[in-house]
Specification:
single chain, 0% strand, 67 residues, 33% helix, mainly alpha, 1 helix
Length: 67
């Protein structure tokens, strides 16, 4: 046991490293979900627009004075 345990541990570590390397280098490892033709998929949520100046209430209305 004293002789075989380190050899077995080394072999297991090499095998795990090889598997990890193969998965890391494989371009198809992280497959994208299948989408139908014409289907739109959004991967990033758009930022919500917030008013820059919160001290103003309401909205600006352009007007003309009538005499």
């Amino acid at each position: 046991m004293r002789i075989f345990a380190p050899i077995m541990a080394k072999k297991m570590m090499e095998k795990a490293a090889k598997t990890f390397e193969d998965q890391f280098n494989n371009p198809y490892y992280k497959e994208h979900p299948v989408t139908k033709e014409g289907e739109t998929r959004i991967e990033k949520k758009p930022k919500e627009s917030t008013p820059k100046n919160n001290s103003q209430s309401g909205e600006y209305v352009d007007y003309e004075e009538i005499d």
